[in-house]
Each structure stands twice: as structure tokens, then as C-alpha cells.
Design a protein that fits this description.
The protein is elongated and about 75 Å long. The protein is of the alpha+beta class and about 290 residues long. The chain has eleven helices and ten strands. A four-stranded antiparallel β-sheet has the order 9-8-7-10. One of its GO terms (molecular function) is hydrolase activity.
Length: about 290
């Protein structure tokens, strides 16, 4: 496989300013929202979906990027959807990428399960969202795409904080005897009495606090209000899952939608706006 640098140089050499798309640029607003590069009329899949607080400015950035020459040559049209602000743009972009499967997007693809660390009596296990809903469980830590990624995160936590692999359940050991990492001074010694088991567990809890997945703090769906300079939206959310947006509360109340698997991307987008108190939250009927 050719190095990335060579592929970029080749793309730059083939780059030509996409004059055929200039009329499309003129129709784009300098406002928040989601934009879509489209191919020929009959093409099933869009080419690329992106978001910005300045749709026109962001699309023009694509035009100035030689590495995107192939995308620009294939593109025939550019559509857009306005949003009130960045929250709505992020939510809509993630939703559209998962449902429309654009050819050039790699991030935000749909993942069927999320894996988290669960702590019980000092032992850590990996659980998945098919068994325990992260929106409902009170003590899950981290969101990972695979059990391996979750265990890698746990090892990193142990290494950074001199926690014991044996007590964490990462490796087997003999009770009362130093683990291999303790002999290397990489473990504080809870495995052989150099540190109390209770102290080890407390340190682990403190380290995991920042990674705790927030349980859904409401009894049902809510509408999160986002105000822009010339537009207002109500984003309907239940169990950290995005169900849709409307420009009035009346229309928002009509949004039902169905929640499925826990959506890590929606959670990451919504956690701060929902919990920080900076946005109006309207509870909706269950």
C-alpha cells in the first residue's frame, strides 16, 4: 500500500477547482446546519455529510483542499439543512450519517453495542449495552466500541495509577503474594499487603469518577431548547437518544420516535447541554 504522503501528493496533482459547483455555493447560507455532497441524480448513497456553524464557509474549505479532489469531481449537487446552532447540527449530522451511509464518511458509523467497565467489590468487569443499558445503570465507566478497547483503557488506568492487575482481574495471581508488576514497583502492593485492599478500591473509584456514564436524569423524553440568531429548535431526547427536532414545542410534543441501542455519539453531544444548566429543558409527556 502506498504511503499516505504519496496518495495526498497524487490527489493534489489532480486537483482542479470545482467550477461546476460554484452555483451550489451561492445557494448555501452562512449559518449553522448540515450539508451533503451528492452525486448524480440516480445515485443511491450521498458522497459526504458534514456539519458546521457556517455551512457556506465550511463547504468552501472543502473547495480549497486538494486532498478532496476525488470527492469534488464526483459531486454534482450540494444540499443543506439549517439548524438553530451547533447542538442541532451535531445531532443531525450523526443521525444522517448513520441512516444514509455516505461513501466518504468514516466517523459516526452506526455501532450496535457499547462496552463499559463495571465495578463491584473492587473487581472490574466489561459489560455491553445489550446486557445493561448505560442510560439506566448508575455505575458504568467509559464507552468503548469493543471489549478489547475497554480492557486497554483499564490497563492504562492501572499503569497510570499503580493499581494491581491481579485485584482488577486483568491477570491471575497468588493471594498474598506480590504480582509481577509489584516486584517492578509498578503496583502499589495491594496484592501482598503493601496497600490495603480498601485503599486500592477507593483509589480506583476516584480514578473512574471522571469516566462515569451519566444515567438519564429524567423519567421520560425532554425537549432541549436551542436558540440561534434567527432560529429556535427543540431537540427531543429520551435515554440519551436523539429522536428529532422541531421549531415549536407543539411540534416537538408530536415527535415520538423509537429508542434502540444506546447511542454513544448522541450521548457525547448531549451530556453537557443536558446537565450543565445552560439550556432550557422541557419535560414531555411519557
Amino acid at each position: 500500500m502506498r504511503p499516505v504522503r504519496d496518495r495526498r501528493r497524487e490527489a493534489a496533482a489532480l486537483y482542479e477547482y470545482p467550477e461546476h459547483l460554484r452555483p451550489e455555493i451561492d445557494a448555501l447560507p452562512r449559518a449553522p446546519g448540515v450539508y451533503t455532497f451528492l452525486g448524480n441524480e440516480g445515485d443511491v448513497l450521498p458522497l459526504y455529510i458534514g456539519k458546521s456553524i457556517d455551512i457556506r464557509g465550511r463547504v468552501m474549505d472543502h473547495f480549497r483542499t486538494p486532498e478532496e479532489a476525488r470527492l469534488l469531481r464526483q459531486s454534482k449537487r450540494i444540499s443543506h439543512v439549517r439548524t438553530a446552532g451547533d447542538i442541532g447540527a451535531q445531532l443531525l449530522e450523526a443521525q444522517m450519517i448513520k441512516t444514509r451511509h455516505p461513501l466518504y464518511n468514516r466517523k459516526l458509523r452506526r455501532t450496535t453495542r457499547q462496552f463499559s467497565l463495571a465495578l463491584h467489590r473492587g473487581k472490574v468487569t466489561v459489560v455491553n449495552s445489550a446486557e445493561i443499558d448505560p442510560a439506566r445503570a448508575p455505575t458504568l465507566y467509559g464507552l468503548h466500541s469493543s471489549p478489547r478497547a475497554a480492557m486497554t483503557a483499564l490497563r492504562r488506568i492501572a499503569d497510570d495509577n499503580r493499581l494491581c492487575y491481579t485485584l482488577l482481574g486483568i491477570e491471575r495471581g497468588t493471594p498474598g503474594r506480590p504480582c509481577f508488576r509489584a516486584m517492578l514497583k509498578q503496583c502499589a502492593g495491594a496484592c501482598h499487603g503493601g496497600e490495603s485492599v480498601g485503599g486500592h478500591e477507593e483509589r480506583l473509584r476516584l480514578v473512574l469518577e471522571d469516566r462515569q456514564v451519566a444515567s438519564w436524569p429524567f423519567h421520560g423524553a425532554i425537549a432541549l431548547e436551542e436558540r440561534g440568531t434567527d432560529m429556535r429548535q427543540y431537540h427531543v431526547v429520551r435515554d440519551w437518544q436523539y429522536l428529532g427536532s422541531a421549531t415549536t414545542l407543539t411540534a416537538a410534543r408530536r415527535i415520538r420516535g423509537e429508542t434502540g441501542q444506546f447511542d454513544r455519539d448522541a450521548y457525547r453531544i448531549l451530556r453537557a447541554p443536558v446537565l450543565d444548566g445552560g439550556h432550557r429543558i422541557v419535560p414531555l409527556a411519557a
